Amino acid sequence: MTDDEQRFRVLYRQHYAPVLAYALRRVGPDRAQDVVAETFLVAWRHIRRAPADPMPWLYRLARNAAANEARALRRGVRLQERARAGATTMVAGTLAASDHAERIGETDWVLAALRRLSPRDQEALLLTVWEDLDVASAAAVMGCSTAAMKVRVHRARRRLAGLLTRSQVDGSEAS
To answer: How many angstroms separate the CA atoms of 152 and 114, rounded?
Structure first.
């Protein structure tokens, strides 16, 4: 076992409980384990930078992990809102989201259609909608030119709209 591994094991053993308690107070029981896992992952990556008294450092890492978790949740909510708004627009008002159950069904319907797209189309849409990247940034992530990314996003949106329209027609015929 290397010195870094040994140092991390000691750090983890001694500080897991306080970091978990910190995360539970900040994000609640549903997300605390994710925050702790991210905290110790970052700690492992930077174990050589760990100070002699690591608690403040670990709390800072946990605070950053909790903030990242909160941002991810907000992006998820925004994606669902955009998907809901886009779906309603794409099918020209055929969905009347008058109650909560219908809105949830509509979101599931859009997400199911998204999963039917190719991984490349999904990634193009998720980068530009979920991650809220501009086309140039999304192109850098996907390793293509900005022009190619614009085409990918346009085609992915068109394919998603087609899937949504088809599934709406199929769903209404089945009723």
So the answer is: 14
